[in-house]
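#data-curation
PF: Archiving a pair of folding outputs for the training set. Convention for this channel: one message per protein, sequence first, structure tokens after, nothing in between. First:
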Amino acid sequence: MGVVVSKRRRSQGNMPQKQPPASDDDGAMSAPASADPASTAPPPAAAAAAAADSKPPAPPNLLAHIPLEHVPASYTVHAALFRSVANAGFLHAQLLARNAAFEYSFVDASTLASTTHLLAAVFRAVNTAASSSSSPSSGLRTPNVHSEAVFCLAPSANIAEAYRRFGISPASRDVVAVKVLTAGSNTTADDVWVHLCASVEGTAVPFTDENVALCTDWAKVRKYYKLNGAAALAGIKDEGARRRDEEMLILGAMALRGV
């Protein structure tokens, strides 16, 4: 049978004998050498620079400023495209809760044929908002200019359907965020970008026709705008020409809504 020895006793038995302190030739004990803290610490400026270098670089500002003709100068339009969004459900919930911090047009990019497609809706919404102050009868049909832009994408006057089809949903993967700023607002475009970067869990890419085209679900677009079987598209073999004609039909349907 083995003998159990406590760790404490074993450590005492193996402890080396205490050596007398070293002394100088005159018998005085010498203190052990120690490093000077001031000599080992980096200079304050170098430490600050190292801390700054360790911070992740700020993401490039991809919030596009969109100049729209025939829009009052007191309105400015900004847009950003995010791909592979992981928290669309959270963003959708903020809109349902009418959280003022999330007053954007969050549009499902899969329903867009081009940047012009979206900007046509924004143009109509902004001009409607601008005219509502002088003519209440021609005012917004929805709570604000951002929800109005989503509504203006629809070819029909059904607001709920417009939100459901063109607005963000928990299933959205690619999202365009549009922000309309007015003169005198305390919010700047830089503020908008910082807030979007902190709120949207996705990859920001430039808001261009090329990137929007990567998101477009043409089967969905053709269904929503009733392009399947359209006589104007019959016989068009060239894909590029067909897409251009489809976009013209989409813009026409939006413009004629309610006429």
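PF: Second:
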Amino acid sequence: ERLERERREGGAPDGRGGAGRPAWGGQEQLEALQERQRQAAANVATSRCSLQLLWRQLRCRQMRMLHEVSQVYPIEKCEKCWAIRGFCIVSIDSLSHQDLREEENVSTALGFLAHLLVTLAGILEVPLRISVQQAGCSRSFLCDPHESLDASVPPREFPLYYGRGLEKSRFETALRLLRDGLHQFLYSRGYFDERRPSSSNLLECAALIVHKEMYGAESST
């Protein structure tokens, strides 16, 4: 009678529940959970190793490309200025008062610098806040995509060259945009030190990016 009453109330001495489901013991449940936890931990460790390997491969590829770029666009510090491929770029303040006879050399150097910035952004996957057009030549120009909130209004073009018939203010704006793009690049990679005064030399900023990427963030130029 007692067994019959337990069956009617849902008890099951033979280890089965009232609905026909097996009644797991506490020890069996614990062992099953522990096994699932071990499997999950093993999967996490395997995924982590795979991601680390992919990151090392990507970083090695970036380093090779950075080395090649530094060979194409070597940046050197001269006595009074910085130079890229032998073409000097003085400070932004001095660039605004350059002799027109030096225009071709200056615009060529700025075109090289613009191309270097675009190339570094592509290698390191850094989105730029400026748009660079015709990079690498002496007639490069910049656009600020965020200049207007109206998407139907095309951004203005600011030349990285100057000469007769061109507004000097547009050239100066292009220099500021290029400087802001370099500073944004430094900031995005964690190299921009707000405690130090911002450099007014564009090539010095570019040289800092290349040096930090190739030799480590803790290295000094």
